């Protein structure tokens, strides 16, 4: 009887040890599988970034060539405005599959004229609100069914993020920039008795008592009371935040923005857009010849027919993962500069 009990204990012990060994082996296999999958995902991510980097360089090349051939005009009939649909990259991207299997790597994207939208940084300059631009934004809000009174709130917020120039006493020169070490109290006096002071008596000063962070994207409007996420979605295709004040390109803008800028009805703006589709506007005289009386002297300062800022959107899919990149590019006659890149 005692021998049978010992045999039973030995069997149970053997079963427990076997179960433990199987558990350990299974755990090791699982950890190995996780590590392999992690390495694979990192490889996919790196490959996607390189593909998008190549696409960004290609977009820069297109815009650089456009400068040489466009003759100071940008419109939706140019090569940069053509949307790139899903393009398979079978022969260009290694995605971990065998050579006999079809690739799932694809690239899509487009270049968008950033100056086709109203620039929030046009609402104020050096901390001073531009009332005319506030009216333009209010009309745009009305066109997209948003409370027009919110335009004043946005202008005040934009102005608060900019340094305000304060001319030094006894001088009429407002173009000289101040020494960064000066204070607003010292600049109001214009002079100082301290020989080591950094105040320049002949220069302007910038009031930096309260300096808020500058707006960098449309979502920053959510920091202003009255704005909601739904409003941001509605404004996505009509409003933008660019580094400096910019005119609106009438060759690429929407009827809503055009109606707000020219102070005309949406119907009249739609007629201009329809005429633009038949033939783009070469310059201001061409526009006035085809649509006389639409642009006044004040409005002419805020519109253009060429562009310096572009959005570049690219999306690459690789097997089971995808990566989307948005970039803002500043184009000049000398070079194209990428101002920021954001991954989604």
From TrEMBL:
Residues 169-204 are annotated as: Disordered. The chain crosses the membrane at residues 7-30. InterPro entries: GspK, GspK_central_sf, Pilin-like, T2SSK_SAM-like_1st, T2SSK_SAM-like_2nd. Residues 116-244 form the T2SS protein K first SAM-like domain. Residues 193-204 have a biased composition (Polar residues). It is found in: Cell inner membrane. GO terms for cellular component: plasma membrane. Residues 181-192 have a biased composition (Low complexity). Keywords: Cell inner membrane, Cell membrane, Membrane, Protein transport, Transmembrane, Transmembrane helix, Transport. Gene3D superfamilies: GSPII I/J protein-like (3.30.1300.30). The keyword Nucleus does not apply. Residues 248-292 form the T2SS protein K second SAM-like domain. GO terms for biological process: protein secretion. NCBIfam families: T2SS_GspK. Belongs to the GSP K family. This is Type II secretion system protein K. It comes from Undibacterium piscinae. The gene is gspK.
């Amino acid at each position: 009887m005692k021998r049978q009990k010992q045999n039973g204990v030995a069997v149970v012990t053997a079963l427990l040890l076997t179960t433990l060994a199987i558990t350990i082996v299974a755990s090791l296999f699982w950890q190995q599988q996780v590590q392999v999958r992690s390495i694979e995902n990192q490889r996919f991510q790196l490959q996607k970034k390189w593909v998008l980097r190549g696409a960004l360089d290609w977009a820069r090349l297109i815009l650089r060539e456009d400068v040489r051939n466009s003759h100071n005009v940008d419109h939706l009939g140019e090569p940069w405005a053509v949307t790139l649909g899903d393009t398979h990259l079978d022969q260009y991207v290694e995605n971990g599959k065998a050579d006999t299997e079809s690739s799932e790597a694809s690239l899509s994207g487009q270049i968008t004229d950033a100056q086709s939208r109203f620039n929030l940084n046009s609402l104020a300059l050096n901390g001073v609100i531009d009332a005319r631009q506030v009216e333009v934004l209010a009309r745009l809000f009305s066109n997209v069914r948003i409370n027009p009174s919110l335009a004043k709130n946005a202008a005040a917020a934009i102005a608060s993020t900019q340094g305000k120039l304060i001319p030094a006493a006894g001088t009429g020169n407002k173009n000289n920039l101040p020494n960064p070490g000066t204070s607003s109290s010292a600049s109001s006096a214009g002079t100082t008795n301290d020989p080591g002071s950094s105040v320049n008596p002949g220069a302007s000063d910038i009031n930096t008592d309260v300096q808020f962070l500058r707006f960098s994207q449309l979502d920053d409007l959510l920091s202003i009371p009255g704005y909601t996420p739904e409003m941001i979605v509605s404004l996505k295709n009509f409003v933008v935040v660019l580094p400096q004040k910019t005119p609106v390109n009438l060759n690429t803008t929407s009827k809503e923005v055009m109606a707000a800028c020219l102070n005309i009805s949406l119907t009249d703006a739609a007629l201009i857009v329809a005429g633009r589709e038949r033939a783009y506007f070469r310059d201001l005289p061409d526009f006035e010849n085809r649509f006389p009386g639409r642009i006044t002297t004040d409005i002419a300062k805020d519109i253009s027919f060429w562009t310096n800022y572009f959005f570049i959107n690219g999306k690459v899919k690789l097997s089971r993962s995808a990566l989307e990149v948005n970039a803002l590019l500043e184009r000049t006659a000398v070079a194209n500069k990428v101002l920021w890149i954001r991954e989604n």
